[in-house]
Design goal:
Elements (H helix, E strand, L loop, with lengths): L2 H6 L2 H26 L6 H12 L2 H32 L5 H8 L1 H25 L17 H10 L1 H28 L8 H30 L12
Helix pairs in contact: 2-4, 2-8, 5-6, 6-8, 7-9, 8-9
The structure holds protoporphyrin IX containing FE.
Length: 233
Amino acid sequence: MSRFARIASTSIGKKLLMAVTGLGMTGWLVGHLTGNLKVFLGQKEVNEYALWLHDHPALLWPARIAMLVFILIHIRKGLQLRGENTKARPSKYQVETTLRAGFPSLHMAMSGIVLMLFIAMHLAHYTFHLLPGEYRNDAMGNPDVYSMMIAGFKDPLFSGTYVIALGFVGLHLWHALSSALQTLGINHSAYNTLLRNGLKGLVLVMLLGFWSIPITVFLHFNNIVQLPIPAWN
Ligand code: HEM
C-alpha cells in the first residue's frame, strides 16, 4: 500500500481528503456563482460567458474532471467516516445511535444527500437538457442559457425547488467550512473568531447570491414586482 493510500485510509486522512475536496468544490462554486450573476447584465452577457467557457476546453474539462473526482472522493470518504462513527458507538436501538451521532453529523448527511439530488436534477436540466424547458439558440446562434434560466425560474415549482435546495447547500457549507479549517489545523487564537465569522459571511453572501437568481426572475417575469434591472426591461 502506498504512503498516500495508507494515510487516506486513516480517520484523519479521510477527514483531510473531505476538507480539501470540499474547499475545492466551494472555490468552484464561487466561480459558478460569479458567472451566473451575469444574468443580471442581460442575455448577451450571460450567453457570451457560457460560450466563452465552452470555447476554452483546456479550462473547462480539467475543472469538470476535478469536480467529478472531488465529488466522488467526498461522498466515499463521508460514507466511510459515518460508517466508522456508527460502528464505534454500537447501540441496540437505531434512535439512540442517531441521537448520539449528534445534530451536526446528522444534518451534514441529510443536507449532503439533498445536495447530491439537487446536482443530479441541475445537470439533467442545464447540462443534459433532459427536463422540460427552453433549449434554443439566441440571435447569434449560441446556446441561450439566459432564456433557459428565465423560462425555468418563472415557474413557481421550479424556482421553489431551487430556493429550498439552495438553502440546503447553504446549510451544508455553514457547518462544513469551519469544520474543514479545524481538520486542516488552521487555528490561531487571535484570528479564530475572525476566520469563522468571515467564513459564515462568505456562506451567507453565496446563499443570497444564488437565491437572488430564482427569486428575482420569478418576481420580475411574473409581474409580481417590477424590479429596476435595466437588462430585464
Ligand atoms: C441559482 C443557482 C444556479 C444557477 C442559475 C446555475 C446555472 C447553471 C448553468 C446555466 C449551467 C450550465 C452551464 C453551461 O454548460 O453552459 C450550470 C452547470 C452546473 N452547475 Fe449550476 N447553477 C446554480 C447553482 C448551482 C449549485 C448550487 C451547484 C452545486 C452545488 C451547481 C452545480 C453545477 C454543476 C456541477 C454544473 C455542470 C458544470 C459543467 O458542465 O461543467 N450549480 N449551472
